[in-house]
Amino acid sequence: MTPTKLFTINLLLAASLAAPLSAKEGMFTPDQLQEISDELSEAGLELEPEALADLTGFPMGAVVSLGGCSASFVSPEGLVVTNHHCARGSVQYNSTAENNYLEDGFLAATKSDELPAAPGSRIYVTTEVTDVTGQVREGTEGMEALERYELVQQRRKDIIAGCEETAGYRCQVASFYGGAQYKLVKRLEVRDVRIVYAPADSIGKYGGDIDNWQWPRHTGDFAFYRAYVAPDGSAADFDEANVPYEPEHHLKVSASGLDDGDFVMAAGYPGSTSRYTLLAEVENTFNWTYPTFQTLLTDWIVTIETAAPEGSDARVKYESRLAGLNNFEKNLRGQIDGARRVGLVDRRRAREAALGEWIAADPARAGFGEAIGQLAALSEESAAASRTSFWYRNVSRPSLFSTARRLYRLSKERQKPNAERESGYQDRDMTFFRQGLQALDRRYDPAVDKAEWVLFLSGYIAQPMGERVVAFDQALGLTSETTAEELPALVDRFYADTTLGDAETRLALMDASTADLEASEDPFMQLAVAMYEYGFQLETESKTRSGRSLALRPAYMEAITQWQRETGTLTYPDANSTLRVTFGSVLGGSPRDGMAYLPFTTLEGITDKDTGEDPFNSPDKLLERIEAKDYGAYALDSIGSVPVNFLSDLDSTGGNSG
Fold first, then answer.
1. CA 511 – CA 253 distance, rounded (Å)
2. Catalytic pick from 65, 70, 72, 85?
3. 14-23, 365-374, 434-443: lowest mean pLDDT where?
4. How many Å separate Cα 561 from the centre of its chain?
5. pLDDT at position 24, please?
6. Residue 84 backbone dihedrals phi, psi, to 5 degrees
7. Which of 44, 223, 250, 270 could form a disulfide with 575 if both were Cys (CB 3.0 to 4.6 A apart)?
8. How far is residue 180's CA from residue 76's CA, in Å, rounded to a whole number?
């Protein structure tokens, strides 16, 4: 069974706005669970909360990160289960129009048949978590904003470097409560990841974007990877001599499944949330950013589908991106509608007013009010900067322009000692950097890339001249008179004269000096050089705002924590790609008047929806077994069939998939 993503939107809205929050709605760090042990027991947890705080014990030691999705070991030989959409990029990478695993599915009959996952694929096994708050924050209180930001970042990099002196580990220093707390997370980095099984899209993506974020849902959204290491057990790159990783713990899949009302708990690595943003940020997000980006996403999807016709190799290359864009577009649309329906902005305004009243009730809390006032002004400033740079950030997206910018930045960063380079450009990042350049071969088509760039440029030139970037206009030859119809011809020379479409050329440029790249005749590299100073300016302004936030947001979060503690509510930190736990129950619901959702969908629902055409084109063999009611041992008595997907009130967000 696959838990649907439905209710995530409304639950996130409720969780981000409700004052106070109930514990059930939080994404808690494992060490917080003992503080809500009574609620967990009442909800149905039979394990001791203390056991869940041990990240290397059972069951937490079996829960891993894919660096964007979650997953779990389910065998002593490194077998990993995750969502189909989490592994789909690797399936796409191995597919061609002639040998399309997206369409046909993939099953390795033996271990030797397993395919390498896409370059850069990783499985991260958390082995240790250490509080390093003092090391990061000490002595930063009186600093100027930019100096504070840079010192904090340098300390985080230094701590990571010390952690990674142990070969085979990838470490992170994660920020909690707006920078009030920092933890060092040490993780074994499994670099040899292979695809074991992925169903065809007719199962793993059944219902496609029509059913995405919808109920009832009937997708078989699951897939299997396997983790491999060197024969001595150390992390290693792909090698036929490697052996399956033997995890200390693995989960057992229960064939008995779940029933209505059952307790459910999810442990995973949610990417990021912004549950504690101030009113200005909420208003900007839902009144401007989301609607603007949702419109752009709609046009972007059409642009790719037009430039990469169904059945072409270009479509195979862009299938993963299309899936992501469709998912994001529908998510944003739902969040916009949900925000309007629940009066999100007004509720946030009311919450801030209530917090203000609590602060005003005690003179000892005056410092909170001062910090929050300054943070509110900073939020307004950040929102304005985000709107101003929106279109420039989008015209910087095309693959080869982005590649040129990264290569030129690498040449600049390599002029510094490794320890002082920006994250993403240190020696520890070069494997990912190289693999990203290699992977471009299976995710880039010049005609599609050009069509995307023209789309973004069309939006850019429609903005007032005062909101455009002079250096960019000069580099491209754009004027106030340039029309959208002229753009294809204007950018033709970039694609006609570039050599960055060649993988060997891209990889060789990783070792190029700044002077070599500045002398390059490649038009994308010339554009990257021309825009470097402006990009650096934007980055510096952003860092300065972040430095100001580091001084203000911890006080705001402390106010939130104290305020909610008085009502018996535990404040959990925003998601930041570290291990979190959330819990709830299997249940249906009524999203609006006259509509009821049952907690399970069944196999028969697949047949009811099936049209024989994508995305409702279930395999004939499956339809035959459903028709014959060939349920095997998997029928759920309460529904008289085999459940496919289920609903719950778990709190979740992107990154928890899997």
1. 48
2. 85
3. 14-23
4. 26
5. 60
6. -55, -40
7. 270
8. 39
Beta bridge mates, 184: 130, 173
Count of C-beta atoms within a 10 Å radius of residue 224:
22
**pTM of the prediction?**
0.90
Phi, psi at residue 613, to the nearest 5°? -120, 145
Collapse the DSSP code of 324 into the 3-class scheme (helix H, G, I; strand E, B; otherwise coil) and give the result.
helix
Question: What is the spatial distance between Cα 454 and Cα 103, in angstroms, rounded to a whole number?
Answer: 30
Residue ranges of the domains in the chain? 2-122+191-273+578-646, 279-563
By three-state DSSP, how is residue 620 classified?
A: helix
Q: Looking at the DSSP assignment, which residues form a beta bridge with residue 597? A: 589
Q: Residue 453 pLDDT more than 50? A: yes
Q: Which two tokens stand for residue 448?
A: 């599609």
The DSSP annotation for 140-155 comes to: -TTS-HHHHHHHHHHH
Residue 613 has what DSSP assignment?
A: B
Asked if 85 is an active-site residue, the reply is yes
Please provide the distance, in angstroms rounded to a whole number, between the alpha carbons at the two ends of the chain.
12
Query: How far apart are alpha carbons 264 and 585 in whole angstroms?
Result: 5
Number of other residues whose CB lies within 10 A of the CB of residue 630: 11
Cβ atoms of residues 280 and 379 within 8 Å: yes
Residue 80 token pair: 């990993």
> Residues 32, 570: contact at Cβ < 8 Å?
yes
Check: CB of residue 86 under 8 Å from CB of residue 208: no
250 catalytically annotated: no
Cα–Cα distance measured from residue 302 to residue 415, given in angstroms and rounded to the nearest whole number:
42
Placement of tokens 């949900």 in the chain: 338
Q: Is 520 a catalytic residue?
A: no
Pick from 87, 56, 188, 8: which is nearest to 658 by CA? 87
User: Alpha carbon of 578 to those of 28, 125, 153, 158, 420: distances in Å?
Assistant: 10, 11, 18, 20, 25
3-class secondary structure, 641:
strand
Kindly provide the residue ranges of all beta strands, DSSP E only, lying in 132-259, ordered along the sequence.
169-176, 181-190, 192-198, 223-229, 243-244
Q: What is the pLDDT, as a whole number, of residue 593?
A: 87
For 426, the token pair is: 């240190």
> Which DSSP letter does residue 632 get?
T
d(CA 481, CA 483): 6
Quote the pLDDT of residue 658. Answer: 86
